[in-house]
Write a sequence for this structure.
């Protein structure tokens, strides 16, 4: 069995057991919890590589659970598994820290492919040697530590925030093509990933907002440009 450990939070017992057995058969060590409170307690006391969370759960819903997980581990990959398919529900999922979002019903093969894609990305990030420090106006950005610094203020970035900011830095004063960024970071340039990237761009603008000379501007129909 490989060393990948998955936290699965699903209150539908039949589906939860089916998923757990399927993932175990695919050599993922999977731990099933039937509500958000139990899942959060397990997360705080055990080591996991990826979380799959149902949104509609008793005790604590998946959105709240994802936020708590992000507070404890900003880089933890999170997939939402839910019957909700309205656009605002999906966007709220991304805002709360989701890396991916799968609506029920779904195929087991699709879930495995999405898990593999996320793990390939996170593994590549963790093994990459990022030694360069970037100067962004009055800020310093360390992509290895995922820290943005302004004087004595340090902002710890999530993996996606750090990846996106590094792409912008590499293309400073040039256009970062939207589709390129989506495929590099989100794997797929679909509508929901594009909206998710908009959320991350807004976060980066907020972080960089204390230097008026630093701007991330939209380039209509193309992408974004970091100006500093």
């Amino acid at each position: 069995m490989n060393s990948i450990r998955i936290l699965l939070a699903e209150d539908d017992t039949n589906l939860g057991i089916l998923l757990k057995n399927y993932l175990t058969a695919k050599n993922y060590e999977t731990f099933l919890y039937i509500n958000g409170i139990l899942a959060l307690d397990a997360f705080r006391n055990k080591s996991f590589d990826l979380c799959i969370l149902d949104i509609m759960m008793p005790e604590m819903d998946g959105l709240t659970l994802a936020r708590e997980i992000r507070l404890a581990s900003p880089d933890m990959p999170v997939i939402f598994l839910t019957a909700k398919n309205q656009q605002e529900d999906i966007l709220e999922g991304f805002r709360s820290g989701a890396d991916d979002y799968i609506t029920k019903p779904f195929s087991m093969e699709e879930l495995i492919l999405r898990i593999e894609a996320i793990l390939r990305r996170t593994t590549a990030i963790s093994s990459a040697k990022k030694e360069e420090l970037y100067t962004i106006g009055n800020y310093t950005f360390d992509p290895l530590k995922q820290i943005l610094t302004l004087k004595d203020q340090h902002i710890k970035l999530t993996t996606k925030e750090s990846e996106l900011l590094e792409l912008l830095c590499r293309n400073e004063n040039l256009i970062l093509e939207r589709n390129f960024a989506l495929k590099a970071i989100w794997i797929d340039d679909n509508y929901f990933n594009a909206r998710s990237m908009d959320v991350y761009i807004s976060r980066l603008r907020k972080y960089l907002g204390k230097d008026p000379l630093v701007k991330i501007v939209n380039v209509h129909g193309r992408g974004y440009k970091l100006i500093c």
Observations:
- The mean pLDDT is 86.
